[in-house]
Automatic annotation (TrEMBL):
<dbReference type="GO" id="GO:0030833">
    <property type="term" value="P:regulation of actin filament polymerization"/>
</dbReference>
<dbReference type="GO" id="GO:0061003">
    <property type="term" value="P:positive regulation of dendritic spine morphogenesis"/>
</dbReference>
<keyword id="KW-0770">Synapse</keyword>
<feature type="region of interest" description="Disordered">
    <location>
        <begin position="185"/>
        <end position="371"/>
    </location>
</feature>
<dbReference type="Pfam" id="PF00241">
    <property type="entry name" value="Cofilin_ADF"/>
</dbReference>
<feature type="domain" description="ADF-H">
    <location>
        <begin position="4"/>
        <end position="133"/>
    </location>
</feature>
<dbReference type="GO" id="GO:0030427">
    <property type="term" value="C:site of polarized growth"/>
</dbReference>
<protein>
    <submittedName>
        <fullName>Drebrin like</fullName>
    </submittedName>
</protein>
<keyword id="KW-0965">Cell junction</keyword>
<dbReference type="GO" id="GO:0030864">
    <property type="term" value="C:cortical actin cytoskeleton"/>
</dbReference>
<dbReference type="GO" id="GO:0030027">
    <property type="term" value="C:lamellipodium"/>
</dbReference>
<feature type="compositionally biased region" description="Polar residues">
    <location>
        <begin position="273"/>
        <end position="282"/>
    </location>
</feature>
<keyword id="KW-1003">Cell membrane</keyword>
<dbReference type="GO" id="GO:0045211">
    <property type="term" value="C:postsynaptic membrane"/>
</dbReference>
<feature type="compositionally biased region" description="Basic and acidic residues">
    <location>
        <begin position="235"/>
        <end position="252"/>
    </location>
</feature>
<dbReference type="InterPro" id="IPR002108">
    <property type="entry name" value="ADF-H"/>
</dbReference>
<dbReference type="GO" id="GO:0098974">
    <property type="term" value="P:postsynaptic actin cytoskeleton organization"/>
</dbReference>
Amino acid sequence: MAANLSRNGPALQEAYVRVVTEKSPTDWALFTYEGNSNDVRVAGTGEGGLEEMVEELNSGKVMYAFCRVKDPNSGLPKFVLINWTGEGVNDVRKGACASHVSTMASFLKGAHVTINARAEEDVEPECIMQKVARASGANYTFHRESGRFQDTGPQAPVGSVYQKTNAVSEIKRVGKDSFWAKAEKEEENRRLEEKRRAEQERQRLEEERRERELREAARREQRYQEQSAGGEASLQRKCEQQDEAPRNREEQEPVCQQSAHPREVFKQKERATSTTLVSSCQPGKLKSPFLQKQLTQPELPLGGELHATSWPQAGLHEQSAASTPPCPAQAGEEAVYEEPPVQDALYEEPPMVQLQDAGAQHADSYPSSLE
């Protein structure tokens, strides 16, 4: 519950004003509660300073003291607020009065130092004055320093550093200042111009680089399109050449090869083989020793005529065989189906027909020889 200041308000206000007034002899006022209530009343006032006020503090009560003292450093009046809580006060009362401290501080305005005390050691005058001196902020005594500023007599004239203005030097100084200001301004303009030129050069290079990249990209695109078109054209030409190659081969092949049939090729081979066999069976000298002996006798003119007549026939067959030009397909088949050569035997029998003719000739010539 809050402290009640309205019940004894005029007395409280009067005691506070008497302490605050500098010309008033009252320098302290003590406040406490009426019994166990929260009504604040004036416990006492005095003019004896801190020593007198400390003697009035009761260890069994909660009290508030407001004192006026002199600052030991400056000599100016300072106000001290003491929140006294005796050692004999029970804890319940302490807790109830703890919230009244801010209320009493608002009522007793202007306190420079606030002290929370529980024992007599906390409210000794020397301890309180030390706290006031530390709270002043400076070790300064107004009355002690005031003697330094007393007028002790006439003083000497005040010195001065004033110099007469020289027009020439002033003009030179102003001209020099203006020259350096102008030079600084020109230097600033030069730096700005260089920066502007550098920026323009950078933009120009950037533009050239961009244009060069665009040209290179266009050139690469054109080259890629040309390569694509050339690749498609070459592929089309290859396809056309592959399609035309079989047709050209068919056109270049002879008619006999185009119309050749395996059966016809076999028949042509058979005819060629039979012709070769017939042409190879030609009359001639027998390799048999007995027949060679009979055929080589000079008494047999018919045999010589037979040989003479048989040789032209063989030559005729060979000429006819040589004069007949073989077909290209037949020549290719002969080359494919070429038979291995047959080795000549030591003894070769003549054909039966010719042997019969020879026997008849020998029979005809034998009687003539007998005759």
